[in-house]
Each structure stands twice: as C-alpha cells, then as structure tokens.
Amino acid sequence: MPEADPIPGMIIRSQSGFLTVETEQGPVVSKLRGRLKRGKRTTDVAAVGDRVRVTLLEDGTGVIEQVEARQRALSRRAPLPWVGSRRDYEQVIVANPDQAVFVFACADPDPNFRMLDRFLVVAESQRLPAVICANKIDLVEAREARREFGEYDRLGYRVVYTSALTGKGIGGLRKLLSGRLSVMAGPSGVGKSSLLNAVQPGLGLGTREVQEATGKGKHATVVRELIPVQGGGYVADTPGLKSLDLWDIEPDELDAYFPEIRPLVAECEYSDCTHLHEPGCAVVAAVEKGRISLERYDSYCRIRQGRA
Ligand code: GDP
Ligand code: ZN
C-alpha cells in the first residue's frame, strides 16, 4: 500500500531521537528520515518549535520528511562534534520562538535584577522580544513593585504583574501567551509552574509528571517539550535558557544589547570604547547625569568584565 502524502505539523517534544509532531490528526511520535541527518551540519536538524512534514505510518508513528526553514531560533553555540571548535555549531533550544517571558517574584525570593539583565541580554542577542512577569504581587504593595520593575517599562520592555495565588493578572498573562510560542525562564521558586497551572489548570503539572516519569530524574533528562496553552499557544519551560552562557556574546557586541546604551555608543570619543573607563565616554556621562540607571550600568560592567 502506498504511503499517504506527508502532512504538516510542529515538533512539540524531543527525547532521545523521538520527536512528537502535533498535527491536525493529533500528536504523532516520529523519527527523522535518514537522509535528513546525513552530511556535515552546523545546526540541529530538528528541534521543538520546528515546522515539519511528516508521513504517517500504519503503526501510528511517523517519519519526518522535511524540516522547514526557521524564522529564528533560541540557540547556543556548541563545540562542533567533529572539529571541536567551540563556536561553530548551533545547538537549538527552541525553534521559532515568538517571545521570552522572564518570571521573577516581587518577593520570596526577592527579584534578582542582575540576573534579569543577563536574561535580557540573551534575549536581545537572539532578537527575541522579551516580556517581564513580576509574580507574587500579593506579597508586596503594588506601588512598591511598580517602582522596582518600572525601570524596565521605561526601557521598552513589557512588564506584567501577576499573582498565581490570587489570580491577579492571570487573564492578561493568558492573553499574552495565546497564539504564540513563548520561552519561559526565571530562577526557581518564583512561581513559574504555579503560573502555568493558573493559566491553564491541570496542563502544566501533567506535563511535568510525564517528564519525571522517564526515570532518569527531571534534571538529567534532555527532554524538551512545549506545553500547550489556550488559544493555540505554547510555552517552552526550558531550563536551557538559564544556563545559556554569555560567552556566546562577543564583549564588543554587548553595548548593542542594552537598549539605553545602544544609541549613545556613536557619541563616545573612541570608536572602540568599552564604556568602562575611557575619557569622553557618552555612556559614563549618561550614568553620571542619571539618564542610565546605576544598576543597569553595573550589570553592563559585570557582564563586560566577565564577572556576571
Ligand atoms: P517555580 O520553581 O518557578 O516553578 O515556582 P513554583 O510554581 O514551584 O512556586 C514556588 C512557591 O511559590 C510555591 O510554594 C508556590 O505556592 C508559591 N507561589 C507561586 N506563585 C505565587 C504567588 O503568586 N504568590 C504567592 N504568595 N506564592 C506563590
Ligand atoms: Zn563609551
């Protein structure tokens, strides 16, 4: 019997060579057609978020025939398996993400803005729009939270205030996630799983249990999966982003990833100004005038000097 024509879908789970493709006929556990894996590659052939065409086999599994070109990817540079040169291979964490959602708590634990700044640099360097979610708003005065996180509003990042406990802001978060592929990241204990469960009761937790049931323990497995949310969106709850190394970023590119520093660079006296100590530095002048916050400049200096 001839095989049916391949049908379109998106990879929503990846584990040890098995790729689950969400299709209009439901999820299909698939493998890559052998020829897709041949030859020397500089990027992963397929990752969660990739759009593919899959042939359905009689036993209910599938074969991925084609992977469509990526719009963008959240990725890290990794050593080439066959050369060992460290920047030449692109390991894809999530393909085609629409936005990053960085979750921090207003309290318990207190927000770590230096970590947030590092996340934002990663998002900027990957050209990924970033949204900041300030959770546990129930633990602090709303005004206090807005004062702390307001700096990021001024920089042009969207900030949403939520409480997974009281439900405040959950509708807005749900709207923000629906119809998009979002990458969620943040320190542990800030309420990421609670938020996912509040956005979509049951689903986030269910997925985690599956992940743990693989036997190797949650952290040891390299399962990557997308959690579906209402309205056709997905959330990639990826520990990978947290460990994204900043060595991926060239030191002299760093100023481009701070939106408030970027426009000043051309005004510095030296074209190769590091904005750390040079005379005639427009960035230092802006810090002295209070136009760039001391905290953000401190984050810049730490990352630039590899002290992150
Ligand atoms: P994760 O590690 O980021 O996934 O965080 P969890 O979702 O596991 O939450 C960590 C702890 O914070 C749990 O005890 C939650 O009950 C609590 N928590 C989560 N969201 C909120 C919130 O909005 N307000 C308060 N007060 N506690 C919360
Ligand atoms: Zn400068």
Protein architecture, described:
With 308 residues, the protein is of the alpha/beta class. Helices cover 24% and strands 26% of the residues. It has eight helices and 13 strands. The chain has helices at 113-125, 142-154, 170-177, 192-199, 203-212, 239-242, 282-288, 294-304; strands spanning 7-15, 18-23, 26-32, 51-56, 62-67, 73-78, 89-95, 99-105, 130-135, 158-161, 181-185, 224-229, 233-237. A five-stranded mixed β-barrel has the order 1-2-3-5-4. A two-stranded antiparallel ribbon has the order 6-7. Residues 268, 273, 275, 278, 281-283 line the site of zinc ion.
Short structural summary:
With 308 residues, this protein is of the alpha/beta class.
Which features would summarize this protein structure in a list?
two-stranded antiparallel ribbon, 5-stranded mixed beta barrel, 8 helices, 26% strand, binds zinc ion, 308 residues, alpha/beta, binds guanosine-5'-diphosphate
